[in-house]
TrEMBL record:
Protein name, per record: Uncharacterized protein
PANTHER family (alphabetical): COENZYME F420 HYDROGENASE, SUBUNIT ALPHA, CYTOSOLIC NIFE-HYDROGENASE, ALPHA SUBUNIT
Keywords of the record: Oxidoreductase
Bilayer-crossing regions: none
GO MF assignments: ferredoxin hydrogenase activity; nickel cation binding
InterPro entries the record matches: Ni-dep_hyd_lsu, Ni-dep_hyd_lsu_Ni_BS, NiFe-Hase_large
Amino acid sequence: LARLNLNAQKLHPRAAELLPKVCKAVGRELPWRNSFLSLPARALETTHALALAVDILEGYDPPGRSRVPIEPCAGLGAAATEAPRGVLWHRYETDAQGFIKSACIIPPTSQNQSQIEEDLRKLARQMSHLDDEKLCLRCEQLIRNYDPCISCSAHFLRLHVERLP
């Protein structure tokens, strides 16, 4: 949602053309803050990415050389990679032969954990009138709106409702 909210004016013209229609369909203008609007946001981003890919492919001129030779060495490297579910932070250390000595990967899901928990608390209060099965379903949907990796979203989620007085 943040990417779309902050960069809507930079959408490819094909995606920008769809934005007013999508806003009308979901019943609100940007900025969107409801995590349940992440799917229409991703649809717009996908349209943007596909249109850019077509533009790149249509103008592609292959390079003369696709890679350069390297000599393995000891070193340390860190980077941030933008991904659909957020920023992936990673850091690697190599030995003199170029083998990985240590690695640290911080996926977006772990960065979103506190917000997911806060949203779950709010949703549970707002939806407490639902029966347990429907409440669990809505909570599962909320978690999946944060787009955890497929193995996480398919296997980790086992919710139960504990009603407090």
